Structure formats: structure tokens, C-alpha cells
Amino acid sequence: MSGGSFPGSSKDKVNGAGKALNTHDLDGHDLPPSPAPSTPRNGGRKYALATELVYTESSDQYNAASVPIYQSATFKQTSATGGGMEYDYTRSGNPTRTHLERHLAKIMNAERALVVSSGMGALDVITRLLRPGDEVVTGDDLYGGTNRLLKYLSTHGGIVVHHVDTTDPETLRGVVNNKTAMVLLETPTNPLIKIVDIPSIASIAHAANPAAVVAVDNTMLSPLLQNPLDLGADIVYESGTKYLSGHHDLMAGVIAINDSALGEKLYFTINASGCGLSPFDSWLLLRGIKTLGVRMEKQQTNAMRIATFLESHGFKVRYPGLKSHPQYDLHWSMARGAGAVLSFETGDVNVSERIVESARLWAISVSFGCVNSLISMPCRMSHASIDAKTRAERALPEDIIRLCVGIEDPEDLIDDLSRALVQAGAVNITPEGFQALKINDSAEASS
Ligand SMILES: *Cc1c(COP(=O)(O)O)cnc(C)c1O
After folding, report:
1. Any idea which residues bear N6-(pyridoxal phosphate)lysine here (predicted)?
2. Of 47, 268, 330, 333, which residue is most buried, by most CB within 10 angstroms?
3. 191 φ/ψ angles, rounded to the nearest 5 degrees
């Protein structure tokens, strides 16, 4: 079935597939079913996420298999009054971006998705819902950039920011009140891999102030593994730079919502400030999303192998795939997988530094979500923007090493890590194998 006019072609053309669909999206764009709202609106069984990730219907006049890149800042109008056409200016809307947004809305189980130039750009758009005097309640183990933006808003925007241990909903209950305009959550946190109970916190926040917006940063798990909107969140946002893209070749931010009024406010800011994702990056992200399923599955399997390996050699490992994770049950009550980011401690900052520098396959890099494996020391790299005193207050161990596991052969990854551990002097070599040298506080050798 090839029916369907793409914006820009004749609008009178009868859209066969579109008859059963509401073809007007929230912006009033009369779009063809592309990427098709294939489910749940087709009336049949809902497709699995793995199917939705790759299934798009592009129906431009040439039936292009890949959504075209509309590399155009402006679109010609048909009348002097400018009315009538779907698109006029790319800051306000672009067909390639719209395709991506509709595809993401489907995948994220959302009414509407919006894409901007980075994950931090997404948070910037979201926090512009706030007014001076508003209170924000958030975690104490946040992504460094999130921390920096919130700090800026508290010193320059009159926003009151409370950092609390969000792993205990009761702590949060003591802080939220009728001035709480936003609750900002990350789960699992990074790099401490603490789990946050989204449903309980959302209900506590909404009870304290029904107008409070609960926003969840879902970057660590991606829509493949967790849907915060289904767990009580009002807004979910992600850095598209990570798992959604998967190749560290673009930067993007994604916001998804179910409330159309909220969607309108967020879109207003994107159009007003001009941070919408460019057509080329929208196209690249669309391409990346198609392989999210296979990438994440392989990355998770590898991550579980590495986590088990490190734990069995006596290191204190933080990974929600391990039964030893103190919030294992809570994590699995919300998520469909453990993700591919884990951290471990060696008990010695210098040993950790040597491990990171001795690894070869594991590239020293901030960020995660890429197909290749990465190693980093968060206190020296991604979280260096949090001052040492605050890091200590938040019990962020200076020796913590973060591993972001890729799709390589797991034996190669383990060999390389073993060699780095030995070379760095992190392990005691015995005839039976090797064991972590310094077992710190709560970590007991498990084998
Ligand atoms: C990377 C990241 C961000 C910021 O995304 P950018 O695309 O780098 O701006 C926000 N939150 C988390 C958890 C991240 O890992």
C-alpha cells in the first residue's frame, strides 16, 4: 500500500492508509502515516518494541526506504498570507525532525515526543517550565551536567533546589510541599547505580502538589528497558547521544510527554529558543534507533559477564543485574533489563588510575551507550564539575571506576580487564587465580 502524501506534495491526494487514522498531529500537521502510528491504532495486536524500532513507513513521492533529510531552513508558501503549508521554517518544524519525533513517541509509549540538540538541551527546555521561587527536589547522585544546570538556576534563576537521597521515598516526603514545582529523578543513578522508586515518588510528589511535574532522566536504560511515563512520571527525557544513537556520532536530546498542554509549553520553548534537532542529526538518530534492540541486548549480556567476573574476584561491584544489588527487586519491578553501565571500587585511587590507563580495548572516555566499551573514573572526568567537598558529602568514592560495556567479544573484554588489573597491581595472584587486593568496607570476597 503506497498511499499517502508527504508534506509538500498535493494535499488533496487521498491518503488510503490514513483514512483509519487521525492524520493531524498535535501541531496540526497533516502527515502521512509516516512513521506509521502502526500500533496501537491499527486495531490489531500491538507490535513488540523490537519491531516498532525498525518499522517506519516513509511515503514520499519516490517511496524512499530511508526517511529523506529535508536539509532546508525554509519552505515555500502557496499564498501571500503564508497559510496553508505544513512547514515554513525549520526552527519551528522540519519533516525529518517530525518523522523522528513521531517514531520516538511510538517507542516511548508517549502522546508526543520532541527532539532537541542535546540531553542537556532537553533538561534546559524542561526547567524553563519553572519560575523564580519554585522548588525542585532532586537526587544527590546526579549526572554532572544536570547538577551544573540546577546550580546555575539556583544562583541565577531564583529556583530553590533540594538534593536528597531519592533512594528513600520517605526522605523525599519530608521535603516536598505545595511549592514543589518539579521532582527530577535519575534511575539507575550514575556512577553509584542507585535505584529510585519512580511510582512511589510520583505519588508522593503529586499528593504534595498536584501540579508538580515529575521528570525522569531515562538515559541509563533507554526506552527499550524502561518507560517512566508508564510508572507515573509526567515527563521523560533522555540524552539521544547515548543508547538511542549508539555510535557517538551525534548529540541529541529527547523529551516525551502524555499531557498535550505540557507538550505545547515545551514545544513553545524549543521554537522560541531554537534548540530543535537539525535535519541531518534527526536522520542519523532515526538510523541509530533501528539497532537499539540488538545493541542493547548484546551490551547487557556482556555487562552481566563482566559484573559477575569482577564480583567473583572480590571487587565491590554495583550493577542491578547482580542479585547482590541492594535494590535488585525494586529495579526489576520497573525495568525490563539491567542496562550496560556498572561501576566497581578498588579501594585505592592510584590503583584505579593505573587500571584505567592500562586497559587497551576499553577506551578512556566520558559518556556511554556506544557500541564500543569505555572505562572512566567519574570523579576525575564526567563528575569533575561537582566539587570534591560535595562529592564527599554524597559519598561518591574517589576510586570508583565506571565501565560502559559495548558489543565486543566478552572474552576479549575480560582478558583486557584482567591484564589491566594485574598490571595495575589491583589483585593478588594465587595458584587458584587472582583476588582483589584491597577489599573495602562492605565488600566481602564472594568466592
Ligand atoms: C549524557 C547524559 C546527559 C546529558 O546529555 P548530553 O546529550 O550529553 O547533553 C544527561 N543525563 C544523563 C544520565 C547522561 O548520561
Report:
1. 242
2. 330
3. -100, 5
